[in-house]
Automatic annotation (TrEMBL):
A Pfam family assignment: CBM_20
Any one annotated GO CC term: membrane
Annotated TM spans: none
Catalysed reactions, as listed in the record: Cyclizes part of a (1->4)-alpha-D-glucan chain by formation of a (1->4)-alpha-D-glucosidic bond
Protein name, per record: Cyclomaltodextrin glucanotransferase
InterPro entries the UniProt entry points to: Carb-bd-like_fold, CBM20, Ig-like_fold
Length: 109
C-alpha cells in the first residue's frame, strides 16, 4: 500500500492499563503525518477493546498504516466529546516500523 507517497505497512498497537472514565476514548498521536504530527485534533483512533471479555479491559488495540522502515515517536491520549485531552505521562514511545508484513507494538499506559 502506498499513502503519503511512501510504502505503508500495517501496524497493530496494543496498550495495556489504559483505564478510561465514562465518555473518554483512547487515541494515538505522534511525530508523523499518519499519527497527526502531535496534534490531538488529528490523533488516530479511537482504539477498540474486546468488550466480549471483561478480562481484556483495559487493553485496547488499533490497526494503523504507517511508512515502512520508519522510526516514529508517539504517545497515547484520552479524549472526551468536549475535546478535553489527557496525555500519557513519561517519555515518548519509540518504534521503527517493519519494512514489510505486519508490525505489532505492545505498550503500557
Amino acid at each position: 500500500m502506498v499513502t503519503f507517497g511512501r510504502t505503508q505497512v500495517a501496524t497493530r498497537f496494543f496498550v495495556n492499563n489504559a483505564y478510561t472514565n465514562y465518555g473518554q476514548s483512547l487515541y494515538i498521536v505522534g511525530n508523523i503525518a499518519e499519527l497527526g504530527n502531535w496534534n490531538p485534533d488529528k490523533a488516530v483512533g479511537c482504539f477498540f477493546n474486546n468488550t466480549a471479555s471483561i478480562a481484556n479491559y483495559p487493553t485496547w488495540f488499533y490497526d494503523i498504516s504507517l511508512p515502512a522502515g520508519t522510526r516514529i515517536e508517539y504517545k497515547y491520549i484520552k479524549k472526551d466529546a468536549a475535546g478535553n485531552v489527557v496525555w500519557e505521562s513519561g517519555s515518548n514511545h519509540v518504534y521503527t516500523t517493519v519494512t514489510n508484513g505486519t508490525g505489532t507494538v505492545v505498550d503500557t499506559w
